[in-house]
Amino acid sequence: MVTNELTTPTATPLQVARARGRVRGRLILLGPAFVAAVAYVDPGNFATNSAAGARYGYLLVWVVVVANLMAMLVQTLTAKLGLATGRSLPELCRERLPRPVNRMMWVQAELVAMATDLAEVIGGAVALYLLFGIPLLPGGLIIGGAAFVVLALRSRGFRAFEIAIAVLLGVIVLAFAANLLAAGSDPGSAMAGLVPRLQGTDSVLLAAGILGATVMPHVIYVHSALTRDRIPATDDAERRTLFRGQRTDVLLALTAAGAVNLAMLLIAAASFRGGGPVGADSLEGVHAGLGQSIGTAAAFGFAVALLVSGLASTSVGTYAGEVIMQGFLRRRVPLLLRRLVTLVPALVVLAIGLDPTRALVLSQVILSFGIPFALIPVVAFTRRRDLMGNLVNHPLTTAAAALVAVLVVALNAFLLWQVVAG
């Protein structure tokens, strides 16, 4: 007997996702940028933005806004790179760059990872001290270990990890929204702060710190891996659909992160500028000052947001370290060993008693020096049609991204000259 079998084409992963319904089909495209966005509101941002508001009032509002717009552009390009090539940025660097250059890129990326962990662990440790009186060194150990709990969600699939990180980001947004409403602000002065200007070398240092805390090198690496690993595209039409989803993802996530960063500065400016308590440009001083000027609830909300930020961002940072090692060297290191290597500098800072806020601000300056090493390859790769196909950059997009890279390099060169000149 001869039978004719009708075969039904197998649905693609994107078709399966969209078959879940109009709303769920769109929501499934969101998530990677929210993981990246947590790094944009890590404890380093608390330190730099609060210090900027406490010292200079609304002067550096424009830096926060410009840095966030730059971050949107950078993360869009990074997400597109992973989607179009099926490779993370470190993998492309290993495949496309000379071996000595690739090794140099890996070394600086590891230093960036250490500076990132420094900010996240110290910030979380300070939060535990403010909330429960736990000494800084044990607090740092607790934060470092707690990251494994969040990272364990990755074993249940990418959605569980993304949702957990998005929820933690939501807690931070709500805490600062409530504190901003309670603190109030001067709309006229805030609008005047949109006019670009600086006041002396210290304001330049803080501006570089804000930039380093907002445009984060390690999530430039990790975002490409997040989009690479998510929903594979089978043709150009699906790539365009996925990229539209990623643009929406970046817009929503980075708008939320930018609002938090701006709220940090506005709260400090409204509460402390020209009359705040002594030490209001430190995390402990901000916590105490909020309690005095707004109320105990505001101080509690600040500390909770700082704790959540440290926990979420150190989890993302550990994942980024894994992407960096695997991509640049094609090596896998046990997660525990990887965690210990990046954790040590933070624990040393806590053990020897260095000022936590000063260490946080300086860590963000280190991060700003790492931005060009991640950003320039992104710009170079995303302008190549042989790599990107129909998702290749428009010439205006490449020009804008190149301008961002030039500005970052120029700012870092100025800072280096200031240090050398004393």
From TrEMBL:
Record's keyword terms, sorted: Cell membrane, Ion transport, Membrane, Symport, Transmembrane, Transmembrane helix, Transport
Q: Which InterPro entries match?
A: NRAMP_fam (IPR001046)
- Membrane topology designation: Multi-pass membrane protein
GO molecular function annotation: cadmium ion transmembrane transporter activity; manganese ion transmembrane transporter activity; metal ion binding; symporter activity
User: Which terms does the UniProt entry file under GO BP?
Assistant: iron ion transmembrane transport
Task: List the record's Gene Ontology CC terms alphabetically.
Answer: plasma membrane
Record's subcellular location: Cell membrane; Membrane
Annotated transmembrane regions: 59-83, 136-153, 160-183, 203-222, 250-272, 292-314, 335-354, 360-382, 394-417
Summarizing the function annotation, the protein's role is: H(+)-stimulated, divalent metal cation uptake system.
Q: Please state which protein family the record places this protein in.
A: Belongs to the NRAMP family.
Name of this protein: Divalent metal cation transporter MntH
- Source species of the chain: Micromonospora lupini str. Lupac 08
